[in-house]
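2024-03-11 09:14:02 INFO receiving multi-entity request
2024-03-11 09:14:02 INFO entity count = two
2024-03-11 09:14:03 INFO echoing inputs for audit
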Amino acid sequence: MHPTARTASVAVALTMAAGLTGCGSSGGAGVAADKKQTLTVWAMGAEGEKLAEVAKVYEDANPHITVKVTPVGWDVAHQKLVSAAAAGTLPDMTQMGSSYMGEFAELGVLEPVDTKTFKKDAFFPAAWEQGVADGEVYGVPWYVETRVLYYRTDLAKKAGISKPPTNWAELQQAATAYQDKAGTQWGLHLQSSGLDAVQSFSPFLYSAGGSIVADGKATMDSPEAVKALKEYATYFEKGLSNKSFQPGYEVLTDFNSGDVPMFYSGPWTMAGINDNYPDLKGKWAIAKVPADQVSASMAGGSSLVVSKDSEHKEAAKEFLSYLTDTEGQKDWFKRSGDLPANISAWDSGELADDANFKIFREQMETAQPWPVEPQWTEISSKADEAISQVTQGKASAEDAAKKAQSAIEGLVK
Amino acid sequence: MSTTTESAAGAAPDAAPAKTGPGAHPPAGRRNRGKRQPVAVQHMAGWLFSTPFLVLFAVFMALPIVATLVMSFTDFGLRNVTDPLSAEFIGLENYTKLFGDEKFLKALFNTAYFVVVGVPLTVGLGLGVAVLLNNGIDRARTFFRVGFYAPVVTSIVAIAVVWRFVLDPSDGLIAGLASEVGLTSPDFLGSEALAMPSLIVMAVWRNLGTVMVLFIAGLQAIPPDVREAARLDGASTWQEFRRITVPLLRPTMLYTTVITTIGYLNVFEEPFVMTQGGPSDSTLTVSLAMYREGFNFFHMGYASAMAYVLFVVIMAITVLQLRLLKDNTK
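2024-03-11 09:21:47 INFO inference complete, emitting structure
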């Protein structure tokens, strides 16, 4: 369908849905947890498929509950959630990416979390904050991710690098050495422009102690953020990173060929390398984000939320506890490979013993979530623009930051 | 689309004396003047038969179109999703804001660029290919027709995969061929100057098939005796093409030009899958900008205003084309 028609039909769906919500969902205490009932849950992407397995196990242990899991593709998730919110047909429980949280909290369709059952200090701070909007807790952290440095160890030897870089200076030296001595095409992969360039920029931003929005105020032109932008830009000026970026670029292909010896990515990439490039075994390693003031990366992941209109809040709460307690989180890690948000799940087993997971845990402790803002998508696009201006040499870091700052000021509440 | 339906509806009363459709009024004869009842009944039947279409049209087209118009005068945003009636009327503010919006102006320029270069290329090449396939190439005609038409029926996602490979600056098809002869290929999609031309080439390739099929149909409708007469008069191939083929293809040409222009003014898929509007907004088109505002940022009011500006532009250009390219010989 043509976008104009699409805009219009969504508009009408919203308008009509609003008419319906008035009549629907006449409140009430809801159904008690021990009554026979069906719980509807939406989960996105691979999590949606895996959660159905967990739901079966849960149903066997709790025969009075039927859990109906609907997997929703990430590409349509946002639109479906907005339409459902407008129509008042949100499921009892939903997986929610951190970038959506501010928006849906703003819409007032989420039930605040009972903080007596779900304790803040059981989870990574960055995971917990992703569910907090305007001081109210709406989401219980389900799984987390953070970005660390992946690098080629075999090429590092050639380049004369004996240990992974720990600070900005060492990182740039390493990138240069890879290029000069090991003959790699690039030194470090960074996204120069385009959507979500801000994710690639985040290890620099947070390590410098900067942020985009802090305490509800735009901070894009703070000295820390400008410093990070400048540092980021030098990689493009010196030809250590590719100035041109294409949507759909797959860094692992170039990591395998040796064109890109270093890049930042999340935990899923470990499985990606092992599955798709078994020849790389023993030739790569991960390290914490090289530090400026601190070593800090971005934190992402998903939370679980309960709908305000749900009639099965009690049952949803029990299922939520099952999914986010120590055992549930360990089980989820085994099934999906997602990193547990619950810290106690990291105390034993593979997560405690494996060297790579230790790095992820340490990184997670200092990682920073994106601010929970209703207009976050637009705010981050302004930051993307600033990054692209600087990497393409069209504006100085100061000017780009100033421009983004004034745009973002209009978008925070 | 309007051209076909109009001509079809206009032709119906002359061609067929059947009086069933709602548009076909029976001639005011003596019999009908006496009894009014049957006419109303006949109309009734007509309306009844068109009810399924009318209902679908009203719900899925007319209503959204009106709703979008209303919305374009409001500040409809995220908060209004659950409470649409609280959206405030802000008059023409969205529209005045649009023309001070750098991004939108850039998008307008990009769209114009795409149309001005893309439409003549598509129609011209489509005509060329159609003429060649119609009389030049005898062997493997079907093969070529399928070859040119295949991109039209291929999913844009598959096309994106293929074209990304073709245009990839490091190990793409063009880069590979260039390095064979010792050249380096430019970074097509990464360069602000080349990104839009690359998308235009891709769009031309993708839409050539439709134009070609229409022209082939038009060419086959040209009576052979006209050509024969021209040849007997000693017309060269070029003269025959210039004086016979092109004038007689005029209605087809009008239709393909109008349809291609409308399609290209709405260009969305190519930049959406290939460049996301980048680098530095050099391939951001109006439709893509509208999609971003509406669905990513949820400024529905603002996006609706964009939709209406685009609608007016399309309408104006279409009317202009119909006027300019009208067949004056009749």
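2024-03-11 09:21:48 INFO post-check: Confidence is low (pLDDT under 50) at residues 3-9, 11-28 of chain A.
2024-03-11 09:21:48 INFO post-check: Residues 100 and 374 of chain A are 8 Å apart (CA to CA).
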